[in-house]
Structures are given as structure tokens and as C-alpha cells.
Amino acid sequence: MAIFKAAAVQMRSGKAPERNVRDFEALVREAAGQGATYVQTPEMTGAIVGDKDARAAAFTSEDRDLVVASGRKLAAELGIHLHVGSTAIVRADGKLANRAFLFGPDGSTLAVYDKIHMFDVDLDNGESWRESSAYEPGTEAVVADTALAKIGFAICYDLRFPQLFRAEALAGAEVLTAPAAFTRQTGLAHWHVLLRSRAIENGAFVIAAGQGGKHEDGRETFGHSLIIDPWGRILAEAAHDEPGVIVAEIDTQHSTDARKKIPNLKNARDFAVALRAGQGALRGAAS
Questions:
Q1: Which of 30, 75, 92, 200 has the most Cβ atoms closer than 10 angstroms to its Cβ?
Q2: Active-site residues: which are they?
């Protein structure tokens, strides 16, 4: 059991990594100043850039990335667990990864996670996204066993794939994360209900730092960063789309208690799906 303060940092990242890093550093310091020992920033902390040529100019390899360097230094200086929700990283093969980092209080890298599910959608009013045209999807779920808690990783669109969160909960994650740059359109419709659902169905805390507002590249994100307890209660919310910090106390015993009250992780069963057209059966899995 551990009790600690967690913070979600809400940002409005622009096209220039240098400016975003300055905002990132100021907000992380604000969160640590409020007593947070785990601080999470949103998806695309380093830059939000839609144009292909601009992306090439803004993004670089992990060893040269400004957010990575700053995050590692800040974590050590402030003595915190710093979770960079994600930033774009040029991989060794030249492809881009939408990558999260968790830095420990000594500045070491405790975990790295590449977003698995690509946001390839066509929404109302002509809003269309093809994340797979720019980024290479990850292939591994990640749970970090830290001094604070066992932390499971996800990024934005991953939120719509409950099997990822269930697999991490079954691996022992007490805190699930979903840093995001949710569009305003989808955020208004689904943000709160999806995040609360992931908490309830897994008996886990959920922490989701968001991007918010109108960005330089024209997109608009929802904001409303959230910290939710294992019973689905909202502990803290940035009820707007402006940059800022929210903080809440995390007691991992509450995850244990919730899973004892409703032991659905233990009670899940494998099952078959019967097809009425005589095509046999599909297999379902408890996980």
C-alpha cells in the first residue's frame, strides 16, 4: 500500500518544442510545489504539428529530444516520478513513435511506452485523422512497478480499447493512465464516460492529463484533465481547456478494496460466441 499525491498537467502545446518545454517545466514545477510526487503531462507534450514538413523540423531522436532531456533533469531535481504523457520521437529506422516516458526521482528512465492504437477516424463536420500516416504503432503494453504504485500505460485513442487496460490490471496495475490530446468533438461525447468506465471495470485509479484549447496547427482539443478513483469517482478535474494543474491523493489500498468488493478480474471466464448462421463459434477470452 502507498499513499501519494498525483498531478495531471494540462497544456496547450504549439508547434515550437522550445516554447512547449518552457511551459512544461513551469507546470511541472507548479505541480511539485503542490506536493505531487507523481506528475503526468499530456500526449504530444513536445509539440502538436499537423504538417508533414513541420513535423520533420520539430521532431528528433530520443537522445536529442528537448522534452526527454528536460524531463529527466526535472525528475531528478524535484525528486518526483515524472510521466511525460507522450512526445514524438524519431526511431532508429526513421519512423516516428508517439512515445511516453516515466522518469524516476533519480532521473533514470523507468518505463517507455509507444502508443499502440492509431487514431484513424472520420468524424462529423469533415473532421478526419490518419495518425498511422505519420506514426508507427507500438506492440507492447507496459506496466511499471514503481515505489509509488504499479502503473499501466496508454495514450489517448488507446482509451477506446478496454482490453489494453484489462491486461494491465491483470498484470497488477493499480494506477492506469491515459494522457491525451482528445479532440473537442470526441471529448464532449465520450471523455468522461470512457475514463470512468476504465476505472470502474478494473478497480484502478485513472489519471488522464489532457491537451486543451485551440492549437497553432488549427486543431482544438478538449482539456478536462481528470483523476478518478477505483470506484469511478472524480477526485480532481480541470473543468476547462486552459493550461493548469490538478492534484489528488492516491491511496493504492483503495484499488485493493474495490477489487475485493467487486472481484470481476477474478470472476471473468472464457466463453464462446455462437453464430446462428451455422458458421461455428468464435472464442472469447476472460482477458
A1: 75
A2: 43, 115, 156
